[in-house]
């Protein structure tokens, strides 16, 4: 079988409108997962603003703090760091295939759909550039735009087997890199530690300590370009997650979670156990429980992405199971689920809003709270920011309005046909 994507017998280019991509009820699981994911992103990003603290060679988290700070550091390293962006990548890739297949189901021309997707991903790169230049160097919108641009062209119409083979090969390479780094770190631990020097992570964190906002623009863009290429492609995590998402979306794994409950259960259990297990080892080293020298802690820069990939996929599967359980209760959902899914439906707006709120509060060119907060304070601020976006998205949901950034991206991709 050449492809799992249905092709209409009589394509009609005029059918390519935004409604072609949104007609029908939305699957609960992806929106629910995106909504919670935005909370995890806030928790993962705020430690980068703590520019007055010292860091290790393997983590941006402070190397000291109160007992509560250390507990928060342990929890975030174990369950959040390197686990969120694979989750985001999977949901992003899943959404690409959802949009493509819905368009074809309504008789749209496949080439016209791919052109729209191409414009969408190019504009994502542009939005990411502006986001990094103005506020947040760790922008991921541009990285996903790059991946979407390449993978839509290279894999959208490939066979299921091709997707799984590529995902398997890339996972093998990532596993090999993590294994080699682990072995190398054992030998490196026998050597005397090098002279103290500021590491790459410390340099990135210090960008938020620049007091003159115009002077911070170029350093932020330098970091963004690095993340665009390394995190977006070379780390292999996002490509692997996107390939698996393409396959899962074709089989409607999150659209029909009850039908795929056994698969989702297996992925959730294995993924979260591996993800938390690998993250826990790093967390124990960071808080000083495991006697792993800091000068070889760079090994976690390879093991964390690998175990984080498992953890991110486990989280997605878990939300698929939650959605299946909610569906068994009936067609209506409670107010909490409604509010969280409202954030998921407006994920781009909620994501950018985090930077609009956090950067002026925490950066040195703003109020400079990043110089006085510890890990616990930063986590509390992250939760507060997410609750603000939750409130805003809930109000928009009640009024039947899109998020402003989501509306803009839609308008840029479709032109005037995007409507409101």
UniProtKB/TrEMBL annotation:
Domain of life: Bacteria
UniProt xrefs under Pfam families: DUF418 (PF04235)
Domain DUF418 residue range list: 248-415
Segments crossing the lipid bilayer: 32-51, 71-97, 117-134, 140-156, 163-188, 221-249, 261-285, 305-327, 348-367, 373-396
Organism of derivation: Microlunatus aurantiacus
KW Glycoprotein (keyword) present: no
Protein name: DUF418 domain-containing protein
Keywords: Membrane, Transmembrane, Transmembrane helix
